[in-house]
Amino acid sequence: MTLGDATLSPAELRSVGEFVWRDARGHTRPLVLESIRGAAPHVLVRFDGVFNRDAAAELTNGRLYVEPARLPDAGPGQAYAFQLIGLEVRSDDGRVLGPLVDILQTGANPVYVIRGEREWLVPATADVVRSVDLARRIITVALPVGLEDV
User: Fold this and answer.
1) Rounded distance, CA 49 to CA 77, Å?
2) Which residues pair with 79 in a beta bridge?
3) What is the pLDDT of residues 46-93, one digit of tens each?
4) DSSP character at residue 52
5) Is residue 69 situated within a structural domain?
6) How far apart are CA 54 and CA 8, in angstroms?
7) Chain-centre distance of CA 91, in angstroms?
8) What CATH number is given to the structural domain containing 115?
9) Residue 148 phi/psi, 5° resolution?
């Protein structure tokens, strides 16, 4: 299983349609997508009720949230980051490494940050991530040779 791309296509954003904007202080505002153009990751959007540049500027430095059930399926063998954070990570020999606390995006591949008795930085590649069981909340990994010595 691989990490699903957090960037949705314009068609996927259209299908979601309704969002909640939240700023750093926790203020929220519901937003309804009116139009979208361009190609991911650089799209121009217009929300209902946001009529000019000043109104759009008020949305700067906020984040858009959506109910998980409204998201399109991540695809076969893929998952969104929010579905993986908090899952218990085990080595393929059954050792509990700890919970997945973060996913670092690198140029080559994502890296899982696992914090248990120690911190593990594990590349999220097909040869390392053996299985992801969302129902049981377990990720099984084959630790790369030498990683335990770091």
Assistant:
1) 38
2) 3
3) 999 999 999 999 998 888 888 888 888 888 878 888 889 999 999 999
4) S
5) yes
6) 26
7) 23
8) 2.30.30.240
9) -70, -15
Nearest to 1 by CA among 76, 56, 73, 101: 76
Query: From start to end of 5-84, where are the E strands?
Result: 18-22, 28-39, 42-47, 63-65, 78-79
As a whole number of Å, the end-to-end CA separation of the chain is 25
Contact 113, 100 (CB under 8 A): yes
The token pair at 124 is 């999220």
- CA 28, distance to chain mean position in Å, is 20
Inform me whether the pLDDT recorded for 14 exceeds 90. no
Instruction: Return d(Cα 80, Cα 133) in angstroms, integer.
Output: 13
Same-domain status, 63 and 92: no
Residue bearing tokens 């930085």: 121
Indicate the pLDDT class of residue 7, thresholds 50, 70 and 90: low
Domain-embedded: residue 80: no
Domain containing residue 114: 85-149
